[in-house]
């Protein structure tokens, strides 16, 4: 290409026009090559629908709004899980059955959208998908179990430790180096979790231990999400993750299955649909804003969870919940701030 440009000699208007056409042709080819390397090219076969989830121009306001919506929807799933795990809608359902409903209806929703949008798929890394789905299913199941035993604000706050555990696991699994600020953030977050365990009450709440286990599993899931990010499209990742998760949940629920009431069926469907919408909103938010900007807005899920729990079940956070949640958010916020500075471009 360089040699071709070097032989150009502007010897007249016709030649300059011809050379301009050649330059525009090469410019178009280069742009499509770069887009192809990063999988940003639109699928021209399927029109506007296929370009729905391609990266967009930065829009911080819309990114924040989508993240707030995702947080509200995610808090709604834990509210419905608590209703299903208690006697609010009938005989309590096992957490394994609640997570099965989440994956079943989320898969149906995402599969329907995928069939309508028809995005491009490439060859998936099924081994990494399987590992990610196993930890994701375990984390969701433990989180739903915790929601039935402790206030939603406590369970949500403890679950926010998943990036801390993800950071710790990234050291042996991804070979990442962790500096003093990130270790300090991890210590602060774990101190907040210790407060929420309420050790002074004589016995640690089982629900808090379940929420801590959920955070560990979801932190391990982050490791495999990192390996998949940039290599596969968001719709492909969501579809495969929910398909594998549904397979695991179906095998697990066989031993505890109980016939749900109509209200419980509606709640199970609601969990799946809300989770699918939350994932779609968060993916769109990440396409319109930096992760370090988007992540803090997601912590409003704690506010939504406390509000739902107070209005529906009459359970409002006490001073221990507020203190522990504040400490956890400080640690998580420090980690997000550090990650944003570490990845910021040098100017």
TrEMBL record:
GO CC list: membrane
Keywords, ordered alphabetically: Membrane, Transmembrane, Transmembrane helix
Entry-linked SUPFAM superfamilies: Multidrug resistance efflux transporter EmrE
InterPro entries assigned to the protein according to its UniProt record, in alphabetical order: EamA_dom, EmrE-like
Chain segments annotated as transmembrane: 61-81, 101-121, 133-150, 156-174, 181-197, 203-225, 237-258, 264-286, 293-313, 319-337
Cell compartments where the protein resides: Membrane
Record domain EamA: where: 63-197, 206-336
Keyword Membrane attributed: yes
Predominant cellular place of this UniProt entry's protein: membrane
Membrane topology reported for the UniProt record: Multi-pass membrane protein
Stated family: Belongs to the drug/metabolite transporter (DMT) superfamily. 10 TMS drug/metabolite exporter (DME) (TC 2.A.7.3) family.
PANTHER family assigned: ACYL-MALONYL CONDENSING ENZYME-RELATED, SOLUTE CARRIER FAMILY 35 MEMBER G1
Protein name: Riboflavin transporter
């Amino acid at each position: 290409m360089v040699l071709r440009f070097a032989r150009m000699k502007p010897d007249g208007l016709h030649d300059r026009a011809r050379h301009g056409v050649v330059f525009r042709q090469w410019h178009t080819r280069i742009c499509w090559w770069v887009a192809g390397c990063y999988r940003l090219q639109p699928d021209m076969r399927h029109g506007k629908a296929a370009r729905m989830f391609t990266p967009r121009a930065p829009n911080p306001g819309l990114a924040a709004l989508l993240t707030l919506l995702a947080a509200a929807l995610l808090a709604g799933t834990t509210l419905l899980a608590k209703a299903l795990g208690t006697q609010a809608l009938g005989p309590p359902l096992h957490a394994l059955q609640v997570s099965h409903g989440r994956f079943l209806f989320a898969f149906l929703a995402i599969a329907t959208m995928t069939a309508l949008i028809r995005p491009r798929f490439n060859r998936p890394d099924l081994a990494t998908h399987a590992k990610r789905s196993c930890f994701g299913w375990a984390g969701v199941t433990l989180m739903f179990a915790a929601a039935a035993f402790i206030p939603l604000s406590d369970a949500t706050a403890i679950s926010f430790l998943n990036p801390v555990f993800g950071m710790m696991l990234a050291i042996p699994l991804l070979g990442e180096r962790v500096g003093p600020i990130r270790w300090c953030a991890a210590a602060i977050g774990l101190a907040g979790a210790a407060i929420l365990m309420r050790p002074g009450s004589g016995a640690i709440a089982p629900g808090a231990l379940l929420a801590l286990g959920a955070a560990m599993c979801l932190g391990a899931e982050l490791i495999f999400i990192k390996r998949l990010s940039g290599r596969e499209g968001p719709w492909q990742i969501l579809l495969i993750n929910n398909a594998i998760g549904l397979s695991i949940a179906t095998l697990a629920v066989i031993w505890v299955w109980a016939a749900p009431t109509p209200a419980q069926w509606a709640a199970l469907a609601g969990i799946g649909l809300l989770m699918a919408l939350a994932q779609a909103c968060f993916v769109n938010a990440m396409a319109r804003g930096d992760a370090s900007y988007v992540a803090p807005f997601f912590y409003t899920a704690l506010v939504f969870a406390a509000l739902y729990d107070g209005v529906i079940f009459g359970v409002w956070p006490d001073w221990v919940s507020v203190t522990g949640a504040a400490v956890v958010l400080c640690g998580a916020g420090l980690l997000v701030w550090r990650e944003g500075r570490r990845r910021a471009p040098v100017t």
